[in-house]
Amino acid sequence: MNLKKNNFLLIALIAIIVSGCTSSSPGTSTGAQGTGVNGVQDCGADGACFSAAAANCTPVKVTLTFSVDFLGILSTTTNYLELSKKEGITCKYYQRTESQVVKLSDEIKQQLLSSGKTEAEIEQQESELQTSANQVIGLETSCRFETAKLVELLRNWQAGNFSTDDLSEPNCVEGNVDVSLEQVQAAAVAEENKCLISSDCSEGFHCFKKECINNEVIESKSACEAEVCTGSTCEFNVCQQTCPNCEDGKLSCMMSSNPVIDKKCVECFMDSMCATGFECKAYECVAK
């Protein structure tokens, strides 16, 4: 999602909560700033008020403008944040980037001039930075967290500890949408099943096409025939069972250094082994 690939927005997210940032409207009170329409607490520009409301998922909103200096890149950002729609022990978190202005610090400009850059070239670099920053204006993100997890995130951000994964899937999606608890749980299960090698999977599972597959799926397959001879010609590790969805019409012998799946008759272990309109999933050719 865009949050993960845009460092400007990541800086903005963390600076919202971190105490001591050079905010143009810092606010330190933890008390309510007023109640707006539909019973939503309006914290105005008080980030501490917003953080305090997170513990009980009190419907709350805040608009914060702040400035940060990130390696000589001066970024001034305005974000709108909101908590709403408590569901069980979870809470919906929503954010929208209202504006972002980016400039180079005088120190960085001087370093660039000293390195031989012209004023025009420096202005061009600033223009390119601003163009990149403009991409996040209007960007909306909706998340659903357990309230304890949300409080923990805010606490970590206050301590300066953050990650690009904090607001990533499965808990967060782009747009102003109602992320349900069921969606988060289902996505979390799918995420847990992803892998690169078999050691990434739980005991009793192995990695196949970046997905953790239960060993029982392959253990139940027939073993390859060690040798099949026709006259004077012999084939080794052969599967003779037919397969209507396979490209060549029969099962293939799976060869692997993993003894669990070695020398087993399967429909496929690559998409190209399946007939047109089919793809390989868990060693079977299934309709796309």
Give the key terms.
2 domains, 8 helices, disordered N terminus, seven-stranded mixed beta sheet, alpha+beta, elongated, 15 strands, two-stranded antiparallel sheet
Account of the protein in words:
The protein folds into 2 domains: 2-192, no CATH class; 219-287, no CATH class. The two termini are 25 Å apart. β2 (41-42), α3 (47-54) and β3 form a beta-alpha-beta unit. Strands 1, 2, 3, 4, 5, 6 and 7 form a 7-stranded mixed sheet that branches. With 288 residues, the protein is an alpha+beta fold. It has helices at 2-5, 7-17, 47-54, 106-114, 119-134, 147-158, 181-192, 215-219; strands spanning 22-23, 41-42, 60-70, 73-87, 90-104, 140-146, 172-174, 205-208, 211-214, 225-230, 233-238, 252-254, 264-266, 278-281, 284-287. The longest helix is centred in the middle third of the chain and has 16 residues, at 119-134. It is built from 8 helices and 15 strands.
Furnish the topology, listing elements before pairings.
Elements: H1 2-5, H2 7-17, E1 22-23, E2 41-42, H3 47-54, E3 60-70, E4 73-87, E5 90-104, H4 106-114, H5 119-134, E6 140-146, H6 147-158, E7 172-174, H7 181-192, E8 205-208, E9 211-214, H8 215-219, E10 225-230, E11 233-238, E12 252-254, E13 264-266, E14 278-281, E15 284-287
Parallel strand pairs: 2-3
Antiparallel strand pairs: 1-3, 3-4, 4-5, 5-6, 6-7, 8-9, 10-11, 12-13, 14-15
Please give the share of residues in helix.
25-40%
Secondary structural class: alpha+beta
The percent range for strand residues is: 25-35%
Round the mean pLDDT to the nearest integer and report it: 80
Radius of gyration, rounded?
Answer: 28 Å
Order of helices and strands: HHEEHEEEHHEHEHEEHEEEEEE
Q: Which descriptor suits the 3D outline?
A: elongated
Number of strands: 15
| N- and C-termini, Cα separation | 25 Å
Report low-confidence residues grouped into runs of 5 or more: 1-8, 10-32
